[in-house]
Automatic annotation (TrEMBL), chains A, B:
GO terms for molecular function: DNA-binding transcription factor activity; transcription cis-regulatory region binding. The keyword Protease does not apply. The lineage of its organism: Bacteria, Bacillati, Actinomycetota, Actinomycetes, Streptosporangiales. The keyword Transcription applies. This is AcrR family transcriptional regulator. Keywords: DNA-binding, Transcription, Transcription regulation.
Amino acid sequence: MTGLRERKKVRTRRALIEAALRLFTEKGYEETTLAEIAAAADVSTRTFFSYFGSKEDVIFHDGGIRLEAILGMVGRRRPGESIGDLLLRVSEASLNWTTEEDLALDLSLERVDLIMSVPALQAKALHLLFDSQLRLAKALHEAYQDEIDLLEAATIVGSLVGAAKLTVMAAMDRGDSLEEVWKAARTAATSTISRLT
Amino acid sequence: MTGLRERKKVRTRRALIEAALRLFTEKGYEETTLAEIAAAADVSTRTFFSYFGSKEDVIFHDGGIRLEAILGMVGRRRPGESIGDLLLRVSEASLNWTTEEDLALDLSLERVDLIMSVPALQAKALHLLFDSQLRLAKALHEAYQDEIDLLEAATIVGSLVGAAKLTVMAAMDRGDSLEEVWKAARTAATSTISRLT
DNA sequence: TTATGATTTGCATCCGTTGCAAAATTGCAT
DNA sequence: ATGCAATTTTGCAACGGATGCAAATCATAA
């Protein structure tokens, strides 16, 4: 099951993530070169690209997993549960999310800071989030086929995610602490959901 | 006032925009090289960068103007006008927007298609829109200082813009015609606003 | 140990982007 | 018109991210 090959791959992957994050926070994102990251992880520059598709991707290595989990929650909604309640549960889960890998590497904080402060990463994050929303809207529509059409689902999801996202950004922009930021996000999500139902 | 220098600049700028858009639609965005655009506009590659900051920017040449106009509407809100009414007016204006330059060059349709279909442009658009939202939230907060705080303003703006944006995207994704798309956006905006107030 | 398949590596290359200094162009005063 | 100053354009070199490809290396199972 877990041969040398696979263990090595996991190790290299982690080494790349750690090296990248360390270098990014130490000397800045733009200032860090892929060659440096690869060197720090002890692989060739070329090899970086067989682990990640781009320089940004090394920061968003877990995006897919989170989305799948959320879509799963929607797909397996509790029978009889209202849209609002489901969205509440989904919001809560999303806001609490931290990856295993993150915990193991203790990286979540630096990641948030980085993403917020580096334009290229911000852009990537927004784009990923956007794609996720579209899929979430579709999932919501399918889960409540008889209650809302696709466009209504899109309006709801867009409204909810948009509210949370911009509230987070405004709070960070204002210099709030991370706890305050998450609290604001929660408030925004719950108040938006209550208005949507 | 309008010397040769300035007229030439305007002409070059237009030539670049037109050339870029034509080439992008003809042979695709990634497949079109900056050198080709510059050649088609009869300037050197280097000169492209004294008109636009990046390859994407040539598509978003008018972003700033639109935002300023909207912020102006908010700043000069009609005395006594409710937040909802103001937002309604702003939404209407935003959805109807077409630039002079666009009309002159007849480009608005191709631009929408391009932006929707090219990932890099999508990402840029989202990022621009995001920045705009933050500024709009601040403007809204300032215009209604005694009624809503910054975070509430952010929640409202995020919710409204998010709803409109995702609804547009879902409609396009579904293959709706452009008229249907705008109609869906209008519906999403009005229904979201009515729930927010 | 060797055959096999997967992974890594080192090129070579393309493209977007930037800095810089030389050259060309425009505006202006005389 | 002529010469000077300011502005723009241009060519050139360089950097970094990204990709294709073939050679080299490595893990695994027989």
